[in-house]
Amino acid sequence: MQLHDFGLASDLEMMQQQAVERRQVLRWLLAGAATLPLVSCGGGSDASGTPVTDSGTASSGGGTATTPTTGACSVIPEETGGPYPADGTNTNGGSIVNVLNQSGVVRSDIRASFNGATGVAAGVPLTIKLQLLNASGSCATLAGYAVYLWHCDREGLYSLYSSGVTAQNYLRGVQETDSSGNLSFTTIFPGCYTGRMPHVHFEVYPSLAKAANVANRIKTSQFTFPMATLNEAYTASGYTASVRNLAQISYATDNVFSDGISLQMASVTGNAMDGYVVTLTVALNG
Q1: Beta strand segments in the chain, E
Q2: How far apart are alpha carbons 223 and 213 in whole angstroms?
Q3: How far, rounded to the nearest angstrom, does the alpha carbon of residue 43 sit from its chain's CA centroid?
Q4: Which of 136, 140, 244, 284 is deepest in the core (most CB within 10 A)?
Q5: Closest Cα partner for 245 from 259, 231, 232, 255?
Q6: In the predicted model, is pLDDT for residue 241 greater than 50?
Q7: What radius of gyration do the chain's Cα atoms show?
Q8: What gap in Å lies between CA 118 and CA 170, rounded to an integer?
Q9: pLDDT of 9 above 60
C-alpha cells in the first residue's frame, strides 16, 4: 500500500481517533468481564448457587456447614455398650439377657414393655430421630440398616437389670432406616444416674435381619443432650434424683464423653411440658 504524507495535523487526528477506538474496546472488554463467573481459591458454589466451603460442604450465611456433599462427615466414636445392653453379650441372675431375638422388639414406640411384659415407662415425651450416613462412601445415606437403641428410665433404672424392673423390657427397640437413612423412636427423656451424664445407647446393624444377632453389629455408640435441655427437662415430675445427680457430673468428667462430644451431641427442640424432639446424624463406615 502506498503511503502519503498529509502533515502533522493529519497524523494527530489519526492518533486521536485510534485512542478513542482503544478506549471503546477496553470498555467492551470490561463490560464483558463483569458478566463472567469469578473463580477463587476459597471455594465456589454448588448447582443451586449455595456457597461451598473448602471442605466440600454447603454453608449458610453464618458459615456453618450443612448437609455433607463430598464425604465431609466424620465417623461417630465407638463407645462401650455398658453393663445393660440386653443384646446377648452378658448375663443377669445367671441367665443371658437378650431382647434382639424376642418377638416385638422391632418397634418405633419403646415406652411399653413387650413380649408378655406389661410395664410402661413414664416421663417427659421424647422423639429420637437418627440419620445414618456412609462416611466411607461420600456420606451417602444408608438405607435398610437397623439400629438397636436403649436407655434408662426417669429414675435412672435399666429394664431387665436394675432392681425393681428386672421383669420389664421397656425403653428398648429396633428400627430400620428408610430410603433416606432415617428412623425414629418414641420414648421418654432418660434420667441422670450417679456417675454418668444422661445418654442413649445404640448399636448399628447392616440389615434388619442381621440385627437379631449381636455378632453382626458394626457400630456401638452413645449420644447425649445439651446442658440447657437437661436442666429444663429435669424440672418435670419424677426427675428429682436427676437434678441432684446431674449437679455432680459434667461432660468433662464423664468416662465416655470426656474426650469430646461434637459428634455425639443431639440437636433438640421442644420443652419439658410438651416433650422434646432430638435429632442426630450418625456417620459410620458402611
Answers
A1: 44-45, 51-52, 57-59, 65-68, 87-92, 95-98, 125-134, 140-141, 146-150, 172-176, 182-188, 200-205, 219-223, 267-271, 275-284
A2: 23
A3: 25
A4: 284
A5: 231
A6: yes
A7: 30
A8: 9
A9: no
State the Cα–Cα distance between residues 98 and 148, nearest whole angstrom. 12
The residue among 105, 260, 76 whose CA lies nearest residue 170 is 105
| 240-266 CB burial, b ≥16 within 10 A, e <16 | ebbeebbeebebeebebbeeebebbbb
The angle formed by the CA atoms of residues 142, 128 and 222, to the nearest 5 degrees, is 75
Tell the residue number behind the cell numbers 426427675, with chain if given. Answer: 239
Each residue of 272-286: pLDDT tens digit?
999 999 999 999 998
pLDDT value for 29: 38
* Global confidence as pTM: 0.76
CA–CA separation, 211 and 204 (whole Å): 8
The confidence band for 5, taking pLDDT boundaries of 50, 70 and 90, is: very low
Q: What is the pLDDT of residues 20-71, one digit of tens each?
A: 444 443 343 334 433 333 322 233 333 333 332 222 323 223 332 334 434 5
pLDDT at 239 > cutoff 60: yes
DSSP states along 154-177: TTS--TTTSTT-TT---SEEEEE-
Instruction: Report the distance separating Cα 150 and Cα 155, nearest Å.
Output: 15
* Beta-bridge mates of residue 149: 173, 202
Q: How far is CA 258 from the centre of its chain?
A: 19
CA-to-CA distance for 101 and 211, rounded, in angstroms?
Answer: 9
